Amino acid sequence: TIFVLIKHAIHSLGSDRLYSVVKEVTESINTPASFVLEHGISTWYVKHLNVDEISKRIKGKDFSLLAKKILDLIIVEHCTLHPVSYKDLQKIENKLGIPRRKILAEKLKDQ
């Protein structure tokens, strides 16, 4: 349910033209929820996944397990919809702890 609400917020607030404004606002709020929204918009509208930034932020004390799980779902969805190199899959697995098998299994489901 929470994932669906976050996805609705991403699609309501998101746009590739408004991404810079969204980024500025979410950075000023600086909560796990705003971070998830920012990166959801980034992956969906800008088609960009910043693994290093995500990796740093999810290690913070204030980042909940629920926020990480939602971000994981957003990342897996991004990887299933866009071509991702083997090197990038390894980086996602090593830095974010999302197994390549999970991403590849989701890709096979969509085909």
Structure notes:
The structure is a single chain. By secondary structure, the chain is mostly helical. The chain contains 7 helices and no strands. It has helices at about 1-15, 20-30, 30-45, 50-60, 65-80, 85-95, 100-110. The longest helix has 17 residues, at about 65-80. The radius of gyration is 13 Å and the shape is globular. The mean pLDDT is about 90.
Spatial gap, N to C terminus = 25 Å
Structural Rg: 13 Å
Report the count of strand segments.
Answer: 0
With helices defined by DSSP (H or I, 4 residues minimum), what is the helix count?
7
Name the overall outline: globular
Main β-sheet description: none
Q: Which structural class do the helices and strands define?
A: mainly alpha
Helix content: over 70%
- Strand percentage lies at under 5%
For this entry, what is the oligomeric state of its chains?
single chain
Q: Low-confidence parts, pLDDT < 50 over ≥5 residues?
A: none
Provide the residue-averaged pLDDT: 92
SSE arrangement:
Layout: H1 2-13, H2 19-29, H3 32-46, H4 51-58, H5 65-81, H6 86-96, H7 100-110
Helix pairs in contact: 1-3, 2-3, 3-5, 4-6, 5-7
Please outline what is shown here.
By secondary structure, the protein is mainly alpha-helical.
Features:
111 residues; 7 helices; mainly alpha
